[in-house]
Fold:
Amino acid sequence: MSVMIAADRLVKRYHDKRRGEIIAANQVSFECVKGEIFGLLGPNGAGKTTTLRLLSTILKPSGGTATLNGYDVIREPERVRASIGYLSGETGLYDRLTPREILRYFGQLNRFPDDRLHSRIDELVRLFDMEEFSDVRCEKLSTGMKQKVSIARAVVHDPPILIFDEPTSGLDIIVADTLLTFIEECRSAGKCVVFSTHIMSEAERLCDRIGIIDRGEILAVDTLDGLREKTGERFLEKIFRSLMRGNPA
Amino acid sequence: MSPVIMSRFRLTGTVFRHEIRSAIRDRNTLIYTLVIPLFLYPALIWGILQWTQFQSGSLERQQSRLAWEGDENLPGLAELVRGDERLLLLTPDDPLAEMETGKLDAFIRFTNGGASPPRIETYYDLSRDRSTTARSRIDEILKDYRENEISRRLTEYGETPETIEVVFITEVNVASSEEMGRFLLSLVLPLIMVIMLSIGAMHPAVDALVGEKERKTVESILTAGAPRQSILAGKFLAVVTAAMTALLLNLIGMVIALTHMLRMIEGQEERALIHVPLMAIPVILVTGTLLAALISSAMITLAAFARTFKEGQSYVAPFYFLSIIPAVFGATGGIELTNLTALIPITNVVLLFRQTLTGPLPLVPSIIVILVTLLSASVTLYVAQKVYGDEDVLLGTGGRSLRSLPAIVFSRGEN
Structure:
């Protein structure tokens, strides 16, 4: 299996005036292969977002490195960005543009070939059932419609790696299910997906392997069955608590 | 050109087109970039002139209420005053008190009884338009009376009025109508052009990054496969375009407004020769673009530290006012474009604009202006690029504030 993501002892330090030095990611290492959904599971403030931002080159590591699709996040950030689609639950849209205009913009920014861009946009409009509102300005769309546009925006350039940071946060059950189904389809299409969440049921449904993260450290990486065996617990919540107990503050 | 550079130019163009499209669809940007430059100042000038004309017409129609006191000993003067329909002669008990209450517009007092020649004091209230009008009417009558009386007395002695004149003075304005028009333009246009340039740049400059933060699209744009320099370059070019659009529209609007103003003042269409000399257009375009680059990159840099649009405006507004100070300095009469004044950013561009409207451009100072503005714009653009490389500024994290600017600028490599 070809390794698409290899995080190698990633570290991110911040300096806070009040709290001094904060280590948001501490020696984070894991690998993710083609056609796999890797779940990053942890409570709020555990370091999930920081880790995903490091992988997507939004943040520069204070230590360690990572390679995505064979490109180094420090030395080849542009190539890394061209290989990924990034979506977080808080991602917004350009209100004054239509979904088609947004898809065209990001397709061009990601250097998707011009001669194929139009048909790719049409394909995504059909895939996400956006025909009725694809030429309506985003300021007039509902939350669910906007989320569809956001997902399409993240995948318009057909990247081999997808990074989703709590993508279902704030969504209703129907829209969230659409998104989770899409993530499953991405796996079937051979994409490598990294997916962060604190919702255990989502992780159980989707993830081939799970990395448990707390206070910036990866506590365990394994399949759900592997984690069950390791902790002797059946449910992911219990597994999580068990691993947390083993990592006291 | 290498494919990599070509690709970067294309990406810059993509961001530029996106920003322009967004700006065109944004009502605030349209107001600041198109409506205000093209219509506000011309409308203001037109409105003020209309109001002034209305006011003066209304004053002309009103009678001036007048009183006098003392022994005039000037035959025929009282008849002249009474015969003037614009004047209304009243006989109040206390004329000065009546003037204070506004019931009387002017008061004439003969102060030395029967002495010859008699002394006349004219009382008026400079703070009231109606009183000022009354004074000018009285002056007119007294002047006519004086000239007629001198002429009559000289005739009695067998002389003509020319006998007592030492010299006849005729003033001739050698400036052509076109030169007068250019002078008028040079008084107001350069300063307003700089102000317009700043106003045009302000809204898109704030929107460049803060807009992304507020819309929560900053992560999307940062994870797109385009280099950050290309993204900044596209946004920067869009701000410069907005600023230059405001400047050029303002130029057109002001020329139309001033032409109209001259026609209204002079009442002679052939005298209203307000137009920008052809040679001035490339100078305005080149130096205007460089100044737009300087102001735009400075505004983009300052606004980048804000988390909200309002905060961004509050960061940029002081710079806007500060940039007007050197512009006002340059617009002050008496300061000319020299090798020394050409070294002062913003002031030098105003002086160059003035010079290009009124006369031939001095070569060396003009080159210095271009080089100084180019250098200043390059420095501010470099600072903007450093700021756009700082992840805490981009994401609004880490408590970055304007105080962090020196640390960011002098940090090594891309942040």
Notes: Chain A has one domain: 3-245. DSSP finds nine helices and ten strands in chain A. The radius of gyration of chain A is 18 Å.
